[in-house]
Design brief:
The chain has 432 residues and is of the alpha+beta class. Helices cover 27% and strands 26% of the residues.
């Protein structure tokens, strides 16, 4: 089946529009609701979403060209390959500009007679077919243009608003194929398309996993947050590595003294010292445009729990020594895993640490948590050769990748901040 894509009226005064960009090209698959093209109107440049699932088989208005409101600009089909003769026939039937029709065959496909008069009602073939299928009285419809289009049928609500007619489900061919592939019972689906038609989006939105493995609310929240972050925060990434020899020796020495400091605690202290040195780096940019320098140093940590990943925040690290940081971090991780964490413990951070070293990951890029400015990705400890004063030696290293919000911090300041973290880690054996 072929579906018309007509230039919509996007403002009360709009008579024509210029196609600025086709987001999808010919032969591309498209789902109902996906952006099809961008159009410049008399008011603004706006996106137009596809009204149907299927494939774009013909684009009739190129980028930069102007089309009239309700003019046919593209054709969508439930099949990727359509005969040229079929396309030409569809174009001739659906691109009429005059009220008077040329012959009786056109009247049959594009006009119907009113029951109350000899007045002829112009209607597109697709709208005509669906109005018959749904039992819609088109005489009650006031079209947005000279002809009744599929969008105009939404003025009429059929009894019960049911997606089935005469025991036949009102479903797009593409959605029908998807439902069959996924073994989904379409009789239980409420369609979201025009006149409650079941479309591909309705099938794709159904969670087909078992009850025991359904995505929980936390996972959904994480998904929403990461999507928001990638779409709204301009990320840039800085990569470096830390010579761990002094730090490993320091931890060994402290352990012999009864002080078991975790690497994450030492890393937090090093970050706090870097913020002390570069106070402008301790900044936050909010989505509403607010920008400010933070007085306190609050650092988050990624914690894997039985219910999913959580990012609690250790507050006021600038007022704590290493022992207090270590104890506070251990307590924070424990209450997080016990699901005793409070909402306030999950907010207020400027930077978070994501350490995947235990999973044999050398390096990775992490996504910034919304509301924060950085996230530091930490890999596993590994041995590598390096040149020390002209001599080739072997040392232990850790890769660090700092993801930064470019709205809040530029590359120079972020580089200085990261270099300071590295320096603080590498010289820890010299600290008192």
């Amino acid at each position: 089946m072929l579906f018309e894509v007509n230039l919509p009226s996007l403002s009360p005064t709009m008579e024509e529009g210029k196609i600025v960009k086709w987001v999808k090209k010919e032969k591309d698959p498209i789902l109902s609701g996906e952006v099809l093209f961008e159009v410049e109107t008399d008011k603004a440049t706006m996106e137009y979403e596809s009204p149907e699932d299927g494939y774009i088989v013909k684009i009739l208005t190129s980028e930069g060209e102007i089309a009239k409101v309700n003019e046919l600009v593209a054709i969508i089909s439930d099949s990727q390959n359509v005969e040229e003769s079929e396309l030409n026939k569809f174009i001739s039937e659906n691109n009429l500009n005059s009220v008077e029709l040329k012959n009786s065959s056109e009247i049959e496909s594009n006009e119907v007679l009113s029951n109350n008069s000899s007045k002829k009602i112009q209607i597109t073939p697709l709208a005509k077919k669906i109005s018959k299928l749904k039992g819609i009285n088109i005489e009650k419809i006031i079209p947005a243009s000279r002809r009744i289009h599929l969008s105009d049928l939404n003025q009429i609500t059929t009894e019960g608003n049911n997606p089935s007619v005469n025991n036949k489900l009102f479903i797009s061919p593409f959605a029908k194929v998807l439902a069959k592939e996924r073994s989904i019972n379409i009789e239980e689906i409420q369609g979201s398309g025009p006149l409650n038609r079941i479309i591909g989006r309705d099938i794709l939105n159904i969670n087909t996993v078992s009850d025991n493995s359904k995505v929980n609310k936390l996972r959904q929240a994480i998904a929403k947050a990461t999507i928001h972050s990638k779409q709204n925060i301009p990320h840039f990434y800085l990569n470096t590595k830390v010579n761990m020899n002094n730090l490993l020796q320091y931890r060994k020495t402290q352990k012999q003294k009864g002080n078991k400091y975790s690497f994450n605690a030492i890393l937090m202290q090093s970050i706090a010292l870097a913020f002390d040195q570069f106070s402008d780096a301790n900044c936050t940019y909010k989505d509403n445009g607010e920008f400010f320098i933070n007085k306190d140093i609050n650092i988050g940590i990624a914690v894997d729990t039985s219910t999913g990943l959580k990012m609690p925040v250790l507050k006021n690290i600038n007022s704590k020594d290493l022992s207090s940081i270590n104890n506070g971090l251990n307590d924070l991780i424990n209450i997080t895993r016990e699901n005793k964490i409070s909402p306030s413990d999950l907010s207020g951070g400027v930077i978070s640490i994501s350490n995947l070293g235990a999973y044999n990951i050398r390096s990775f890029d992490a996504i910034i948590l919304p509301g924060q400015t950085y996230i530091l990705a930490v890999g596993q400890i590994f041995e590598d050769v390096y040149v020390n004063k002209g001599k080739i030696e072997i040392a232990s290293f850790v890769n660090l990748t700092l993801s930064c919000d470019h709205r809040a911090v530029d590359g120079v300041l972020a580089s200085q901040f990261l270099s300071s973290i590295v320096s603080n880690l590498e010289k820890i054996n010299n600290d008192k």
